[in-house]
Design a protein that fits this description.
The chain is α/β, with parallel strands linked by helices. It is built from 7 helices and 11 strands. β1, α3 and β2 form a beta-alpha-beta unit. The protein is globular, with a radius of gyration of 18 Å. The protein binds S-adenosylmethionine. It comes from Flavobacterium reichenbachii.
């Protein structure tokens, strides 16, 4: 498990992602998919610092967030005083009551690095959905991402938040030695103070990207039927978004 979302990193993540990601657009996109499928109660897995939660709360929707990181949840709770968040692992969780839609957004599926991680997550999602419930999630498309990292060994993101300038230099190692199209990701975070670059954090994690066929097969094996597959570009990655329903 990555250390990316603990301690100081949670606050840095929050500052930077608000400049990379248009959360209003993100909310509209996912909420439309929920509404098309008559979802009333929603669980967001990997709710992070609560930027989508803020939009669900503003629209007075029945929302619950789940995240592994206590530090991310602490920021989410501060941002959303009227929403509920629980600390848990997507690979093994049990809600008090099943919900109509379960979301995994923001490419949080990249942290499911073994087949067992994926199967356990899909099984937990299945058990916590109502009969007609839908599962909506995104993942990074391996077929496009791996060539991209080969052609772009260092990827630089710049962001300005609350008058502080940040730079993130990240590197994905596609050395072909890891199972399951996993990649070693390293990143250096800097602030720019008086024109000088100062390192604030080093980060490292192992992530996995998927082919569409793999995901289709995992869903089939876990009794889901795909309703929709959407090809979607995000700030740095080509992803697919899947809408699937339970087969009972
Ligand atoms: C890339 S962030 C995305 C956060 C948020 N969805 C967004 O778009 O800003 C990934 C999130 O997934 C959470 N996460 C990673 N592994 C998890 C697991 N096994 N169970 C629950 N949450 C997990 C991390 O703590 C982090 O908050």
């Amino acid at each position: 498990m990555a250390n990316l979302y603990d301690g100081k990193m949670a606050a840095i993540y929050d500052a930077m992602y608000q400049t990379f990601v248009n959360y209003d657009e993100e909310y509209t996109f996912y909420n439309n998919l929920i509404q098309e499928n008559n979802g009333a109660a929603t669980l967001e897995i990997g709710s992070g610092t609560g930027n989508l939660a803020k939009r669900f709360e503003a629209n007075k929707q029945n929302y619950l967030g789940l995240d592994y990181s206590a530090d991310m949840i602490a920021i989410a709770k501060q941002r959303n005083k009227n929403s509920s968040f629980i600390q848990g692992d997507m690979r093994d969780f049990k809600l008090d009551k099943p919900v109509d839609s379960i979301l995994i957004t923001g490419r949080s599926t990249s942290y499911l690095i073994s087949n067992d991680d994926i199967n356990r997550t899909f099984e937990s999602v299945y058990k916590n959905l109502t009969q007609d419930g839908v599962f909506i999630f995104d993942f990074i498309d391996a077929n496009r991402f791996i060539p991209f990292t080969k052609n772009n060994p260092v990827i630089v993101h710049e962001a300005e938040f609350e008058n502080i300038n940040y730079i993130r230099e990240s590197h994905w190692d596609t050395n072909n030695s890891l199972e399951n199209f996993m990649l070693e990701w390293t990143a250096q975070y800097y602030t720019i103070i008086n024109g000088e670059k100062e390192i604030i954090e080093n980060d490292f994690s192992t992530v996995r990207v998927f082919t569409l066929n793999e995901i289709e097969l995992f869903l089939y094996l876990n009794n889901f039927e795909i309703l929709k597959t959407i090809d979607r570009k995000t700030y740095a990655y080509d992803t697919y978004v899947i809408v699937a329903k339970k087969i009972s």
